[in-house]
Design brief:
The complex is a heterodimer of chains A (about 400) and B (about 850).
Chain A lengths: L1 H20 L21 H5 L10 E3 L5 E6 L11 E6 L2 E8 L12 E5 L4 E5 L2 E8 L2 E3 L1 E2 L3 H4 E3 L10 E3 L13 E9 L14 E7 L4 E6 L14 E11 L2 E5 L6 E4 L1 E9 L5 H4 L3 E4 L6 E3 L4 E5 L5 E6 L11 E9 L8 E6 L13 E2 L8 H4 L5 E8 L5 E14 L1
Parallel strand pairs in A: 4-7, 4-9, 11-12, 14-16
Antiparallel strand pairs in A: 1-6, 2-3, 2-5, 3-4, 5-10, 6-7, 7-8, 12-13, 12-15, 13-14, 15-16, 15-17, 18-27, 19-22, 20-21, 21-27, 22-26, 23-27, 24-25, 24-26
Chain B lengths: L1 H18 L17 H4 L34 H6 L19 E4 L2 E2 L24 E4 L13 E5 L9 E9 L5 E8 L7 E11 L10 E14 L4 E9 L2 E4 L4 E2 H7 L8 E4 L2 E4 L2 E5 L2 E8 L6 E21 L21 H13 L1 H4 L3 H13 L6 E24 L2 E22 L6 E2 L26 E2 L4 E22 L3 E18 L12 E2 L3 E17 L2 E12 L23 E13 L3 E23 L4 E25 L3 E14 L4 E6 L12 E5 L13 E11 L2 E11 L1 E2 L9 H4 L7 H7 L3 E2 L2 E14 L2 E10 L8 E5 L17 E4 L4 E10 L1
Parallel strand pairs in B: 1-4
Antiparallel strand pairs in B: 1-2, 3-4, 5-6, 5-40, 6-7, 7-8, 8-9, 8-10, 9-15, 10-14, 11-39, 12-13, 14-16, 15-16, 16-17, 17-18, 18-21, 19-20, 21-22, 22-23, 22-24, 24-25, 25-26, 26-27, 27-28, 28-29, 28-30, 29-32, 30-31, 32-33, 33-36, 34-35, 36-37, 37-40, 38-39
The chains are: A mainly beta (about 400), B mainly beta (about 850).
């Protein structure tokens, strides 16, 4: 039938068309917004326009002034309320905005330009801000006018590098309204009190290793206001502010608080109650007759006596189940008083082949310190006690070892 | 060999456009999307059956192959027009303004919207039937024809066969009952013919949509006098006054809360009755005088018309002053608004689930508030306003058909028309209050420098308005249009071809009758007049392989003046045109293969259409701004392409198996501009501008408004005046209409394209594909010389209530939190199972 042939042709044509029409074409994307212009003043220069005094005051900003900075604040968690903090390489400043829920539009890491020629630079209790001076106090940009003053530029990037601070004594005025990283510090009331007392914004102390301290200031409207201050030691990020002469840290969210609070758990131990060479897979290797021996009466393993030059190894079996845990080795040992440490060395290895210590790579370790995780995680991880001496009065006794893993509470 | 060349040609033609990354296309959204399309919807209640036998199609003489008759015999259209109706399917995705609808050869389009208004002859089915349909790009004899095809109805009295016919219909769609009486004398010996029809449509008890109602009357009178064999004059008058209440649209949250995809927020209990705040009242009669000249030599035929139409369409709506939004499904009354407050959320959910006064309009509360205000001689806080559209149109046309030679036929015509449409609001009901103030309270305080911002009508500041008084806006559209066209058709042994040309000039302007405080200097009086010349050209060739196989290639290029509705930035209050207003350019082509065998009929077409520089304008009430907000879009390019196919197999003498379907791809192909303004001068973007223009990045996104994939399979039975018809249908590639603002740089801000918020923001919702089933049955009997017949059609037999007919993103965007779920998409759903039963009795 002629028409059957015709149908075949048509079906092919139609299928081809369908195939081409149904390929998904790439959907359009609007370009992100940029600012058409450039900054003509640094933040440090802007800050210098206003000198704080005992009362809140303000100074005008030259017409046409544009500053640029990266946003470091966020009101996502409710702790930075109605302001945006930006900073450039020279300093940081707070922009007052009379609006909440600023965070989707003004994200941390967003570069912004601020046309501040019509605004003033003033202070609230010596914390410098730009905004408007209304009825004797600083006031924010109206929410409907944000886009007349603040211009986002480009995609959200990284936040600026935080200034590292290890002691309250290192803090200077130039750091105010900048992102800081407090190191090796802890909360005075960690594990005891909430960030805020009921119904009020609250100050808590952060204590550095040198016992100097700085205030953490938290709004009672923050999402985390009534959660417990964490215990432990570590770093805390935040924006440094000032309230009169009191320096205060304001965190953006609890993600800024990175304290570590740990304890250890023994995950493997050897007490030498039986001869490890026979029962536990330990290996003894020595270059002469002065070898490690099992000291059955004392349930220990020891090397003792002899006058020969000695290089004696006592090598553990492989510990293959440490995973990625941080491991600390503790050793119950007795060493001849006054002996040089170079004689009594402890190593670890992942390459020991079971017969030759020389053919293996050994890394010296110190009991009580965290072992290299890249080694402890290896299934052929072993430790070794190596005694090296050419004189007399040899004595080193090992009566037990424990591998402790660090566990975060 | 010929066959392979043919197939190669076909594949090439179809694939070239598919692979080229050219521009085009989008169907402007249905302007009635915010109204009740469901309630408006009417289905043609009679299904046409065609048992034509084409056995002798090749038995002609001299090897001359007869041309194609482009009519309702089309195997694709026949099987899809009814079956696809439930999904608001648009042929090839084209808006209805791309179809030319004529009566007696004169175009019936509304010059403002560009669309013919079928409601002008609603309820007159017995006299507006059997139109001449010209599909798509094929040439018509009565008009030049738009790219979506042309239809011509005849109201010539002598064209109706002598009869008295009574019809009763019962349905659960827009109305429940219809009574229709039709009378025609046929051609009397004295040269006179008279035809008349009257009908009424009423009843809402069976309706799907709560609070909907419909009362309509229709009349038609046509009288013709044949003066001699060459001249005849026909006068037709018709109209259809209809009053109906409208259905609202809601978000999915509301449909889920009410468990009803037909939830209607427009009504509430009042005085023991369901009272609807949105009532549409339409009466736009037409008077048409037609002259027919057919000289003896049969070489010429001239039809001339003089037409006038006039009348009013008005739609009521709630308005309110300094009180909360009274509409129950306002987003602040929905549980989702209280996402941060579980107690409130539970309370609102409970109210929605259990309290009818809460989920419907609270008329009593509105009356109480107004009466309290009246006691203190303060203005009404709630009113019902009436948005009125009055129009007056005069048009004249003359069409000629000349048989120049055996193989050459020339058609042509002229058309001249003037159209005046006045738009204003009046107070319909003070709802127990004392008066209304013609002020825009939201404009108050926006600009202390300009206290007049507040007033819509500067010449009536402080007036206390009562029922019937105009307020808000009052303006007119004025359009003059002249058109001349000609088409020549040539017929040869194996080739038919045609060429056509059309030139037209549109003159348009706005006239303001109210001096608005926002634009005191350019809201009143005449705007600048725009004169927009345009042209169109079309050509086509039919290769008649033999009497059973045809290959047709058609093309059309036209430029089109933008609709006056889309030409002004804010037509209600300003005389300012949209910047960069351009004539639209449409380029369309299709390639069709047609096969006609006794047992199989087939039509398959590939179509491609580029729309360039399309203009669009839409306004909506933005409750945050408390104002109408206008989106004027220019330079929209769209591309519609796809394939459509219909095939019928005769299975014995009684059964026919039909398959028909289309697969289309209708996308935006460029980045047009949108200018957004708020009527009250509100700072729309918070950037200090009350008017701003943005580029819209929506290239390759889909044009909404119609399923882009639709198919049907049907079995028809036809025997001794019985017919039974059953079909299963599938609809897919249904997309939500987009809010252009969500695809602008202003909305994106500095979000990364990979961010979840951004992806949510630009994602265009694709609705789930749905199946429906339809069935119909009918029979007629001869009783002496009379005929009695019935037909019953049941649509959506499986009661599928999940077919979305319209979906759109709300035209507002949460710039602060970028939360696209704050203003979620809105939907209309197709009705579940509906039926239409018609019984008719004809005295011959």
């Amino acid at each position: 039938m002629k028409f059957i042939e015709n149908i075949k042709i048509l079906v092919v044509a139609v299928l081809l068309l369908l195939a081409s029409a149904s390929c998904n074409k790439e959907l359009d994307n609007a370009p992100f917004i940029t600012f058409d212009g450039s900054a003509n003043m640094t933040i440090a220069e802007l800050l210098a326009l206003h000198q704080v005094s005992n009362v809140d005051s303000y100074d005008s900003i030259p017409d046409g002034t544009i500053i640029c900075g990266i946003i470091t604040s966020s009101d996502a968690a409710g702790n930075c309320y109605k302001f945006i903090t930006i900073q450039d390489e020279t300093g940081g400043i707070q922009i007052k905005v009379d609006d909440s829920s600023l965070f989707p539009k003004y994200q941390i890491g967003q570069k912004v330009y601020v046309k501040c020629g019509d605004m003033v630079i003033g202070d609230y209790r010596k914390n410098k801000q730009i905004g408007f001076w209304v009825d004797g106090a600083m006031s924010g940009i109206a929410s409907s006018q944000e886009d007349l003053y603040i211009f986002r530029d480009g995609l959200v990037g990284e936040e600026p590098a935080a200034i590292e601070i290890s002691s309250a004594n290192q803090i200077t005025d130039g750091m105010i309204n900048c992102l800081v990283k407090l190191q090796n510090c802890q909360f005075e009331d960690g594990g005891q009190l909430n960030y805020c007392d009921d119904g009020t914004s609250t100050s808590r102390n952060i204590v550095f290793a040198d016992n100097s301290s700085i205030v953490l200031r938290t709004s009672n409207y923050a999402d985390f206001a009534y959660t417990l201050l964490p215990e432990g030691t570590g770093v805390i990020y935040g924006i440094l502010t000032t309230y009169n002469t009191t320096r205060q840290l304001v965190i953006r969210s609890t993600a800024d608080v990175q304290l570590v609070n740990t304890h250890t758990e023994t995950i493997a131990s050897v007490d030498f109650s039986s001869n490890p060479l026979e029962t536990q897979g330990w290996t003894e290797l020595a270059t002469d007759n002065t070898n490690w021996f099992y000291y059955a009466i004392r349930s220990s393993f020891a090397i003792q006596g002899g006058t020969n030059t000695t290089d004696s190894w006592l090598i553990s079996p492989a510990y293959s189940n440490f995973g990625n845990a941080q491991i600390i080795l503790n050793v119950d040992q007795e060493i001849l008083q006054g002996a040089a440490p170079s004689k009594y060395r402890i190593y670890c290895s992942t390459t020991f082949n079971g017969s030759s210590a020389d053919e293996s790579e050994w890394t010296e370790i110190t009991p009580g310190e965290v072992l290299p995780t890249e080694m402890t995680s290896n299934p052929n991880f072993r430790i070794a006690f190596r005694y090296q001496d050419s004189g007399t009065n040899k004595f080193w006794e090992i009566s037990g070892i424990r591998f402790n893993a660090i566990v975060v509470r | 060999m010929k066959k392979y060349l043919l197939s190669l040609f076909l594949i090439l033609i179809i694939c070239v456009p598919a692979f080229s990354q050219v521009q085009k296309e989008k169907t402007p959204k249905d302007k009635s999307a915010n109204d009740s399309t469901n309630v408006n919807q009417e289905y043609s209640e009679e299904t046409v059956f065609d048992s034509e036998n084409l056995d002798d199609a090749e038995s002609n003489t001299g090897g001359f192959v007869p041309g194609l008759l482009h009519s309702s015999k089309d195997v694709y259209t026949n099987n899809t027009s009814y079956a696809f109706g439930i999904s608001y399917f648009k042929n090839r995705g084209y808006d209805s303004k791309y179809q030319t609808i004529a009566i007696n050869g004169i175009e019936m389009e509304n010059a403002v919207s560009g669309r013919a208004s079928y409601s002008q002859w609603g309820g007159l089915n017995n006299v507006f039937k059997w139109p001449e349909n010209v599909l798509n790009l094929n040439p018509a004899t009565f008009v030049f024809g738009d790219i979506g095809g042309s239809t011509n109805y005849s109201t010539r009295a002598s064209s109706y066969r002598k009869q008295i016919k009574a019809t009763y219909s019962l349905s659960n769609r827009s109305y429940n009952n219809r009574l229709m009486l039709t009378y025609a004398t046929g051609l009397l010996k004295n040269g006179w013919s008279v035809a008349a029809c009257a009908s009424t449509r009423f009843g809402s008890a069976l309706n799907y949509v709560d609070g909907s109602s419909y009362t309509g009357y229709s009349y038609f009178l046509s009288a013709e006098k044949r003066f001699n064999s060459e001249h005849a004059l026909n006068l037709s008058v018709w109209g259809a006054p209809v009053k109906k209440s409208l259905q609202g649209n809601s978000t999915q949250e509301v449909y889920d809360l009410t468990g009803d995809h037909y939830y209607n927020a427009n009504w509430g209990w009042y005085d023991g009755k369901k009272r609807n705040a949105r009532i549409r009242d339409t009466h736009e009669p037409v008077i048409l005088l037609s002259h027919y000249y057919t000289p003896q030599n049969n070489k010429l035929q001239i039809t001339s018309n003089l037409m006038t139409s006039f009348g009013r369409q008005s739609t009521t709506s709630l308005n309110w002053a300094d009180v909360p939004d009274p509409r129950p499904d306002y987003y602040r009354y929905l549980p989702s608004y209280f996402a941060d407050d579980p107690a409130m959320q539970a309370y609102y959910t409970q109210q929605w689930l259990t309290n009818e006064d809460f989920r419907q309009l609270d008329w009593n509360h509105m009356y109480e508030v107004n009466q309290l205000a009246a006691n203190m001689h303060e203005q009404s806080q709630y009113i019902i306003e009436n948005r009125v559209i009055d129009h007056f149109q005069m048009a004249g046309s003359s069409n000629v058909i000349v048989n120049l030679a055996d193989h050459i036929k020339l058609m042509g015509g002229i058309d001249i028309r003037g159209y005046h449409q006045r738009n204003y609001k009046t107070i319909n009901d003070l709802l127990g209050g004392e008066y209304w103030l013609n002020e825009d309270k939201y404009a108050d305080g926006e600009s202390p420098d300009n206290p007049y911002l507040l007033y819509d009508d500067l010449d009536n500041i402080g007036a206390h308005l009562g029922v019937g008084d105009k307020f808000g806006y009052d303006y007119a559209y004025n359009i003059y249009k002249q058109m001349i066209w000609a088409t020549a058709k040539f017929s040869y042994k194996h080739i038919d071809f045609h060429v056509g040309l059309n030139g037209n000039v549109t003159e348009m302007w706005r006239t303001g009758y109210m001096r608005n405080g926002r634009f005191p200097d350019n809201s009143q009086g005449n705007s600048e007049k725009k004169i927009l010349p345009n042209f169109g050209t079309k050509a086509g060739i039919t290769y008649k392989i033999n009497g059973r196989n045809y290959l047709v290639l058609n093309g059309q290029y036209q430029t089109v003046a933008p609709s006056i509705m889309e030409a002004f930035i804010s037509p209600t209050i300003r005389n300012d045109y949209v910047a960069g207003l351009k004539n639209e350019k449409d380029m369309s082509a299709d390639l069709t293969y047609i096969m006609n065998y006794p047992i199989v009929k087939l039509r398959v077409s590939a179509f491609y259409c580029k729309f360039k520089d399309v203009t669009d304008q839409f306004s909506f009430y933005h409750d945050d701004y408390g104002s109408f907000v206008n989106y004027a879009m220019t330079g929209i390019d769209k591309r519609n392409m796809g394939v459509e196919m219909g095939i019928e197999f005769k299975l014995g003498s009684m059964f026919t198996l039909a398959l028909a379907g289309t697969y289309g791809d209708y996308i935006y192909t460029n980045r047009p501009n949108v200018t957004i303004t708020a009527d009250n001068g509100y700072d729309v973007l918070g950037n200090g501008q009350s008017q701003y223009t943005e580029q819209v990045y929506w290239k390759n996104f889909h044009v909404a408004g119609s399923p882009q994939l639709a198919g049907t399979i049907g079995l028809k039975f036809n025997y001794k005046y019985w017919f039974v018809n059953i079909s299963a249908n599938y609809f897919d590639k249904i997309y939500a209409d987009m809010n252009p603002e969500r695809r602008t740089s202003a909305a994106r801000g500095t979000l990364s394209t990979s961010s979840e918020i951004y992806q949510q923001m630009i994602a265009q919702e694709r609705l789930k594909g749905q199946f429906t089933m339809d069935a119909s049955i009918g029979k007629s009997w001869k009783i002496h010389r009379n005929t009695i017949g019935f037909n019953l059609s049941v649509t959506n037999l499986t009661n599928n209530k999940n077919l979305v007919t319209s979906a759109w993103e709300q035209r507002r965007f949460d710039y602060n939190e970028y939360n696209v779920n704050k203003f979620p998409n809105k939907y209309y759903y197709a009705l579940g199972t509906t039926f239409y039963l018609g019984i008719n009795y004809t005295f011959n």
